[in-house]
Design goal:
- The complex is a heterotrimer of chains A (297), B (188) and C (161).
- Chain A has 297 residues and is mainly α.
- Chain A has one domain.
- Chain A is globular and about 55 Å long.
- Chain B has a single domain, classed as Rossmann fold (3-Layer(aba) Sandwich).
- A five-stranded parallel β-sheet of chain B has the order 2-1-3-4-5.
- In chain B, helix 2 links the parallel strand 1 and strand 2.
- In chain B, 40% of the residues are buried.
- In chain C, the strands form two sheets. Chain C has a five-stranded mixed β-sheet with strand order 1-2-5-4-3. Chain C has a two-stranded parallel sheet with strand order 6-7.
- Chain C is elongated and about 60 Å long.
- The chains are: A mainly alpha (297), B alpha/beta (188), C alpha/beta (161).
- Chains A and B meet through helix 2 of A and helix 1 of B.
């Protein structure tokens, strides 16, 4: 039994990494087209990762390696608890609190790894990432509370199942304010513009990744793909109804990512303090308003 | 016996190199060191006019992640020091593109007291782009040429640096750590 | 106030200076070494409060250095250059630090590139050049081509015989 779970977990991990990198590659192409460029091929991200994994790497401290592995491991562990079209490696319904808890481990691992690298830009970037996390977790929690209250459960699958019966029953039609609030929060989670303060290449030289050469950066890219997968999967489960098969689910995920990309391509960047204030007013306000409409009126 | 093992290993290694060279040439991160002139020629090749990202070449903000070091224009005695730091921070394999006449022979600053004449004496350069200034097209064609060279395994500047490390260091020291004046009558 | 009247006023105060109007808003004042601080102080009090820069010229045939103080007035929108000549072999001049604080960095630069000593300036350490051991490079008797050949190992160039 345990072997079956491990096999399933392994296959799901491969799928998550594959889809994550594919999304990033297609994302680069789409961004290029929006900017009137031809753009790299859609498989560019795979080439980049393979090249980076074959490149020489330098580390200044063993904590750097530990941090890099912990960041990727934490995110993959998170991905294994988010149902993909109802599929999970073990018998469960996708516990929301576990996912929220595990998703912080990735960032903590990254914070550890990059702080050990000793470059002053790295703690600056990670500080921004954690500030931003403080910003988007609260509106996102507000949105989650609505659905947990409605379905009286804290599982992704039950929320997804509660939307059965056609597109008009899907949560993004029934609760549009919550959807917009969650979209903004997810934009910040994916660190797409206007919330890319943590990367900011022209400002703090790629932020946390500044001192991550070769293989570390390769792992970082896989990690980025996995986090895109997780965030789109969470939104798909919450708002876009029950999915019948994995292709259906992936297309819905891509829809979410596409919206984020289009906003990313045309937006400038917030200052970090403005971003936190923005996240605590607009999306949180939308979430609370939806809560008021749903439960009080 | 030992020879055979050595040969087998070399064979395996060269096969591996051939495979990995394909990925290397298709994915190049470029760090541009633009303290000289000519940085203005780079935006057209990065943006929609010539779009170098379609060949997998992307700008990078830090030397730790870069594959190509693009040195635009002249390097003075002060910038050459930073240039060497930057070059040595980059992990292998790495390549250097010399951009403009000044990196080849000093260009119009050939008799200046402060401009390095032959950049190749201080860091190994894989490819020069001649011209003052080179047009964006010639930068792009240099990139294609570099990709070709990487694919064939010809661009080995970083290995030249390793093998002739003493020579490069000697040249660098002669300039940067000099203790006596170069000309008679020195010392103000 | 017209620039002509302005120069006449200055001339009344200091009869020993030479003046020259170059353009509508630009004039020159020639003054000898030991009196120039008085005229700088006077100009500063007469609303020429901005010292834009200090630069030197090497007149090697006349065996003189010329130090130029580039002044600008926000009130009259007029620029005046005060020119001081000093002998080349005894290149020493009092500092203008007491009149403008930021003269410090300009004097440091002039000292580095011409070897002119500013008496009273506390910090004349090297500023721009890296580990410089030769003659100051902007002096006319410094052979920059020979230096370039020696320092950067150029040797004979092709087609240069």
């Amino acid at each position: 039994m345990i072997f079956l779970i491990l096999l399933k977990a392994f296959l799901i991990t491969l799928w998550v990494v594959f889809i994550g990198l594919l999304f990033l590659g297609i994302g680069r192409k789409i961004t290029a087209r929006i900017q009137k460029r031809y753009g790299p091929p859609f498989y560019q991200q795979f080439i980049d990762v393979i090249k980076l994994l074959a490149k020489e790497s330098i580390w200044h401290h063993w904590i750097m390696i530990l941090g890099a592995i912990m960041a990727l491991g934490g995110l993959i562990a998170t991905a294994l608890h988010v149902p993909i079209a109802g599929i999970l490696p073990y018998d469960s319904n996708g516990p929301i609190f576990l996912v929220l808890y595990l998703s912080a481990i990735g960032y903590l691992g990254m914070a550890m790894g990059v702080s050990a690298s000793g470059n002053p830009n790295a703690p600056l970037g990670i500080g921004r990432a954690l500030t931003l996390m403080l910003g988007y977790e609260i509106p996102f929690a507000a949105v989650l509370i609505i659905f947990m209250g409605l379905t009286k459960s804290s599982y992704f699958l039950q929320i997804a199942q509660s939307q059965a019966g056609g597109i008009l029953h899907w949560n993004f039609i029934r609760y549009p304010l919550a959807f917009i609030g969650a979209e903004i929060a997810v934009q910040a989670m994916m660190a797409e513009k206007p919330f890319d303060q943590m990367i900011a290449p022209a400002e703090i030289a790629s932020g946390p990744l500044v001192e991550w050469p070769g293989k570390f950066l390769g792992l970082g890219m896989i990690q980025m793909g996995v986090s895109v997968f997780i965030e789109t999967a969470i939104i798909t489960n919450l708002f876009l109804g029950p999915s019948h098969n994995i292709l259906d689910f992936t297309l819905k995920q891509f829809g979410i990512y596409f919206i984020a990309l289009c906003i990313n391509a045309v937006m400038p960047r917030f200052k970090i303090e403005n971003a936190a204030i923005y996240l605590w007013t607009i999306p949180l306000g939308l979430g609370l308003l939806q809560m008021l409409i749903t439960f009080v009126l | 016996m030992l020879d055979k093992i050595q040969k087998d290993r070399e064979k395996r290694q060269s096969a591996w190199e051939a495979v990995i060279n394909y990925f290397r040439k298709r994915s190049l991160y470029m760090l541009h060191y633009c303290t000289g002139c000519g940085a203005i020629e780079l935006p057209p090749i990065m943006t929609s006019r010539w779009d170098m990202e379609r060949f997998g070449i992307a700008p990078m903000a830090t030397p730790r992640q870069a594959d190509i070091l693009l040195v635009t224009g002249y390097a003075s005695q002060k910038t050459i020091k930073r240039l060497i730091y930057t070059y040595e921070q980059m992990p292998n394999p790495k390549w250097v593109l010399g951009f403009g006449s000044c990196t080849i022979n000093g260009g119009i600053y050939w008799d200046s007291y402060n401009v390095i004449n032959k950049l190749d004496r201080y860091i190994p350069i894989d490819l020069f782009i001649s011209g003052c200034m080179p047009r964006p097209q010639s930068i792009l064609s240099a990139m294609k040429k570099l990709q070709e060279m990487i694919g064939k395994g010809e661009a080995k500047g970083y290995e030249r640096y390793k093998q002739n490390y003493e020579w490069y260091k000697k040249n660098q020291r002669k300039l940067l750590e000099r203790e006596t004046p170069f000309l008679d009558g020195g010392e103000k | 106030m017209k620039i002509k009247e302005m120069l006449e006023n200055i001339k009344k105060e200091f009869p020993y200076i030479g003046t020259e109007i170059q353009e509508e808003k630009q004039a020159r004042i020639y003054v000898c070494n030991d009196k120039f601080l008085n005229i700088l102080t006077y100009l500063r009090n007469e609303k020429f409060e901005h010292l834009a820069n200090i630069f030197a010229i090497d007149w090697i045939d006349e065996k003189e250095f010329e130090i130029n103080y580039n002044l600008w007035s926000y009130e009259y929108l007029v620029s005046i250059i005060v020119k001081v000549r000093i002998p080349r072999d005894k290149a020493k001049i009092p500092t203008a630090l007491n009149i403008w604080d930021h003269a410090q960095i300009y004097e440091r630069e002039v000292h580095e590139f011409f070897g002119i000593e500013f008496i009273g300036n506390p910090d004349l350490s090297p500023l721009f050049l890296h580990n410089w051991k030769d003659l100051p490079p902007m002096r006319k008797d410094f052979d920059t081509e020979a230096f370039s050949r020696k320092a950067f190992d150029v040797g004979e160039r092709e087609g240069e015989k």
